[in-house]
Design brief:
The chain has 246 residues and is an alpha+beta fold. Helix content is 26%, strand content 33%. Strands 2, 3, 5, 6, 7, 10 and 11 form a seven-stranded antiparallel beta sheet that branches. Helix 1 runs antiparallel to helix 2 and helix 4 packs antiparallel against helix 5. The longest helix is centred in the middle third of the chain and has 22 residues. The termini are close together. The model has no long low-confidence stretch (mean pLDDT 93).
Length: 246
């Protein structure tokens, strides 16, 4: 049995008029201008997916794409007994990308909308599958070191995305995956690039290592102090109980 605490904060930043990020869990999505940090606890009795998406394609398109993706990717799904977690998530990411393109083709005002996605599926046995498309990131706290588990799908020396969900491109996605086990000593962190593009890696690591109940708010404030030129969304997944069933 494993029990997790999921904490989240999101902010539109200093330059953007709207927040196009979306945070998904259990088929629900969260976004806003500057809501307070929230936290929930869940005992994992079936796979739980938490995802962070960063919208692109203008306010309406970006916001819709990230909302649709966060809800679809985090919704509970029936798994065939022989389905491998990586294969199922790869197929779900492709389905989500195709669905976003389908919606955009029916709505001229949403043409070209898309988003990045980074997330983790936590299983009842305490294992986890991290996945990403685009440049939103996943980290794991390892002692006094913050390890990046995701792969940035950006062109070299550029902010141009090499992969995204939707975006008007009918391509076969190549997501990245990282399989790991959960530990009370190793928090997971998901974030949009509004954090790591505006806060230095050393400052992010120092803040996560220091921990504490206001850690996400301090990370947000680092990005705002660095210019806050993009929406900022950060999720922390803590393992608060892990043991045998019964």
């Amino acid at each position: 049995m494993v029990r997790i605490r999921i904490s989240a904060v999101t902010h539109r930043g200093c330059s953007r008029a709207h927040n196009e990020d979306s945070i998904g869990c259990g088929g629900w999505s969260l976004r806003g201008s500057a809501p307070a940090e929230i936290s929930i606890e869940r005992t994992v009795v079936e796979p739980v997916t938490i995802v962070v998406c960063d919208g692109m394609g203008g306010h309406a398109g970006g916001a819709d794409a990230s909302r649709l993706a966060s809800e679809m990717l985090s919704a509970p799904h029936e798994l065939a007994s022989d389905a491998k977690p990586v294969d199922r998530m790869r197929a779900l990411l492709q389905e989500t990308s195709d669905m976003i393109n389908d919606v955009a083709e029916r709505r001229p005002d949403l043409r070209g909308m898309g988003c990045t996605a980074v997330g983790v599926t936590v299983y009842p046995d305490g294992s986890a599958l991290v996945f990403n498309i685009g440049d939103s990131r996943a980290y794991r706290l390892e002692g006094r070191y913050l390890a990046q588990l995701s792969v940035d799908h950006r062109a070299p020396d550029s902010n141009r995305l090499q992969q995204a969900l939707g975006g008007g491109l009918r391509t076969v996605l190549e997501p990245d995956f990282f399989e790991c086990g959960l530990s009370p000593a190793e928090d997971l962190l998901l974030c949009t690039d509004g954090l790591n593009d505006y806060a230095g890696a050393g400052h992010i690591e120092k803040t996560v290592v220091a921990g504490g109940p206001e850690m996400l708010s301090r990370l947000r404030d680092l990005a705002l102090a660095g210019g806050g030129g993009d929406n900022i969304s950060i999720v922390r997944i803590e393992t608060i109980l892990r043991g045998a069933h019964g």
